[in-house]
Specification:
The complex is a heterodimer of chains A (about 250) and B (about 110). Chain A contains 11 helices and 2 strands. Chain A has about 250 residues and is an all-alpha fold. In chain A, helix 8 runs antiparallel to helix 9 and helix 10 runs antiparallel to helix 11. The radius of gyration of chain A is 20 Å and the shape is globular. The chains are: A mainly alpha (about 250), B mainly alpha (about 110).
């Protein structure tokens, strides 16, 4: 992976910094945060060598940091919550609630990447699996949403409808969040209250769903509470990250 | 006249952290990252580090030393020391003003 990441940088940049940069990348496990940071660094290097460095410098959100991850997690969680409630109040398949939900999901994935820097150094596999599982769940949800909007009555695969894809995708996403919350708890990278809240909400959602399969509708209120608490967990975690990563305003970087 | 760090836009904050890290002696990339993360409890990615290092080197705030085992240490130049001292004095003056207005003495 390191060789691939290095090749993204311009040849002139590699000639000057390539050797030492390769050593640096090999010094510790690379997590999603580092990989995205290197991708953004490669784009910046291309712009910089083409004389567009100052344009790149003005793109203030174009930098991996806890702050960006925190904003993405908080906004993503809020959109998921709004979308979920909206879809619950007006459960028409084509209502905007589900689309708001999807945008929130993208925010959540960006948030997971942005908040994962420290955890990935101690538990890189766990963090990558959490991201991969969340991304697969998110893709299934979006596929389900598109199917529900375009062919609401059709079966997509076997006897699985768009709704089946959506709800299973949701559960897989919750599993991804649970894994991420566990990695965060183990490293204490962020305050424990936020990651514990996210872990508990995710676990309740999963247990209630599994229970609901066997016990019917009696666990529905717990399932709903878990699904509502899950995005709140991301909001809390995001706000905690923003509080930790306050900008040093006098440097003019904000 | 020393070029102010805010000219570096989104790299101004990483740049000042790097300059402070180099204030007590030369360090290579990994040591700078570890030092910054230990001092601020905030992660610094390798892409950000090298984007900021390249800009600081271009402006003459730091200089590269001969590599040791493929790791290249960087050293603060006199210009870099002046720039970071100026920046820290501004930050300190601003912090003192804020604390005075709050009726609290600086620690």
């Amino acid at each position: 992976m390191i060789a691939l990441l290095l090749r993204l940088y311009p040849a002139r940049w590699r000639a000057r910094y390539g050797d030492e940069f390769e050593v640096l990348l090999a010094e510790r496990p690379l997590g999603p945060f580092d990989v995205v940071d290197v991708l953004l660094g490669a784009i910046d290097a291309h712009l910089h060598l083409r004389g567009l460095g100052s344009w790149s410098e003005r793109r203030k959100g174009f930098l991996m940091s806890l702050r960006i991850g925190g904003f993405a997690a908080a906004i993503g969680g809020a959109l998921i919550l709004i979308g979920w409630v909206w879809a619950g109040v007006d459960p028409a398949d084509s209502d905007p609630g589900f689309w708001i939900f999807s945008v929130g999901l993208v925010g959540l994935l960006i948030g997971l990447i942005g908040l994962s820097a420290v955890q990935a150094r101690a538990h890189p596999t766990l963090v990558w699996v959490a991201l991969l599982v969340s991304a697969i769940g998110g893709a299934m949800m979006v596929l389900g949403l598109i199917a529900m909007a375009l062919v609401p009555e059709a079966w997509l695969v076997g006897d699985w409808s768009g709704w089946n894809f959506f709800i299973v995708g949701m559960l897989i996403t919750v599993v991804g969040s649970l894994l991420f919350a566990l990695a965060t708890l183990r490293t204490r990278a962020l305050p424990r209250s936020g990651s514990a809240f996210l872990a508990i909400a995710s676990a309740i959602s999963l247990l209630a769903f599994v229970g609901a399969l066997g016990l019917g509708d009696s666990l529905q209120p717990i399932l709903t509470a878990g699904f509502l608490a899950f995005p709140v967990g991301w909001i809390v975690l995001g706000l905690q990250a923003i509080r930790i990563d306050r900008p040093a305003m006098a440097t003019g970087a904000v | 006249m020393v070029a102010p760090l805010p000219e570096l836009g989104r790299f101004a904050e990483p740049a000042i952290l790097i300059l402070v890290s180099l204030s007590d002696g030369p360090k290579h990339g990994y040591a700078i990252m570890a030092d910054v993360e230990q001092g601020t409890a905030r992660p610094m990615g390798p892409g950000t580090l090298y984007a900021a290092l390249a800009r600081l080197e271009e402006r003459g705030f730091i200089e590269a030393l001969p590599p040791v085992d493929r790791r290249r240490p960087y050293r603060l130049t006199a210009l870099g020391a002046t720039a970071v001292a100026e920046q820290l004095r501004e930050l300190s003056a601003f912090a003192e003003l804020g604390l005075r207005r709050l009726g609290q003495a600086p620690r």
